[in-house]
Task: structure prediction
Amino acid sequence: MIPTRRALALGVVQGPAELLPVSSSAHIVLIPWLAGWDWDAVDAEVRKSFEVALHAGAAAALIVGQRRLIAEELRAFDLRGATVLALSFVPAALVGYKLERPIERRLGGPRATAFGLLVGAAAMLLADRRPQLRGRGEAGPADGLALGVAQAAALAPGISRNGITLAVAR
Result:
């Protein structure tokens, strides 16, 4: 069981972290470690379910908060957009299906998470130094696959899905 105060603390950090190009999962690893919580004493499946619930709550809040933008994007959705979207799911789905547990076992600790934060920050720094030559409506199938590879990389703890996707999109 996760104590209410700790769940609340992580939930309070989750919301804003979801909007920033930082790993919203990193705090789930780093806050307990920095606070000295005996996080490993909590059953691994309970921790995983809790993390999924945090992400689901943040996603629901984002959907409600961004409903107008989402509606606008859905109105502009076409075959090109559907192709890019579909291709962006493939790499992450394959990597997640095959490697989710090994990634968690080998890269789930504070040190690997901190390294992932540094990798994500470096990717965003490099992307910000490049000129943006195309608009979002110009993405093609290769861009969709590149975004999918970025999403797959974000399965590593500490690498922000938002940040790495923005970096690759640039």
About this structure: Residues 131 and 170 are 8 Å apart (CA to CA). The longest helix spans residues 79-107. DSSP finds eight helices and no strands in the chain.
